[in-house]
Amino acid sequence: MEERGLKVLSNDTTFFNKVSKTLTKLLMPTKLGINGMMINIKRSSVIKSYEQLKEVQKKDDSDKKDQYQKRYDESYTLYLEAIDKHIMDSIYKKVRNNMASEFEKEALSNYYTVVHLKDNEYLEYKYRKQKFLIDLDYESLTVTRKEKILSKFDPVYVEKSDFIYKGLLKNYSVKLADGVKAKRVNQLEIYKKIFATLEEYVKSIFPIKLDIEGNKKYENVLDEFEEFEKFEVGKLDEKDFLEKNMILLGLSRTLFTHSLPLVAAEQCYQKLLRDTRNLITNTKAVEKKNQVYQMLLDLIEDYNVKLLSTKVYWDKPEERDAYKEFWNAYSKSNSEEEKEILSLKRELYDTQDEYEKYTDVRKFYKNRLVELGVMKKVKNTPHTRSGHFTKIK
Description:
The protein has about 400 residues and is mainly α. It has 14 helices and two strands; from the N terminus they run H-H-H-H-H-H-H-H-H-H-H-H-H-H-E-E. The chain has helices spanning about 1-10, 15-60, 60-95, 100-115, 120-145, 145-180, 185-215, 220-230, 240-255, 260-280, 285-305, 315-330, 335-350, 360-370; strands spanning about 375-380, 380-385. Helix 10 (about 260-280) packs antiparallel against helix 11 (about 285-305) and helix 12 packs antiparallel against helix 13. The longest helix is centred in the N-terminal third of the chain and has 45 residues, at about 15-60. The termini are far apart.
């Protein structure tokens, strides 16, 4: 009997364990309610501090501005701490006791993913944790349809999100600049993070910003934003993926001019150009290849108009002179065909130092120039009749 009793009786079925679990389940809703109430109080304090700060800023009262800014910052810190406490006191216990919803389980999983960054990527952790906490509360308000609170909280949410995303992009930009000598794999990860961060912002924050500030302020990027929204439906192939990133980079030149500096944005454009050239080479279907090629022409125009036209400092004077020659001709061109010819010649110039790597795509460019009547074939090899820039192999 003693042996059988020891086998049957487990820790989970002891009287004290059952009592403990019952008490936990009874007390948890109370704890959840207290934490939720504290978040509401701290959120209201942030909203009030924000509104007071904006009033002081309108009056341009420099003496009070610092005082109210400090109050706003402190209330925001306490608000985040309340959400953090809610996760540890309530959501963690609900997950541990198998009482959590799928939303809560995912929230806790994402929380630990962010915390994991702390040891090796502290700056990214600092911004990602803020983003996670404020997003968790905002999503909770959205799901519970608390429209009145949201209408007051939206300006705070957008302002803080702007600060967070700018901080993240600056951090990635510095890493990209420092990563010249780093492994290529590390650089690829940084590129992915930059594009993913831009996409998060344009998808989640920018629409709220438009509702608050109005379309007129951003009318120069509304067409691009509408183009981006088209990629939110359906499955994307490699060409769609690159085109979406091209649009995101274009939007970044307006939304994140200083947070994604010209040097970092230029590296991102060059990455897209490399990937698009490779896709042209690897695409066999004629119709699809032509679609990718058309995207390349759009990308070249974006790169030159939105970025290189604003570039002041050039490492190599000959590159600056080649660009000026291209841009003077491109800006004066009267037809799409002229622009296409100039873009192809520009591509041949840009890829000549990596001739072996881009042999196939250069051949594609030259064949297209033959079709346009700009080059002729001699012994199966296209040669230029006349053209801009420097030598074309």
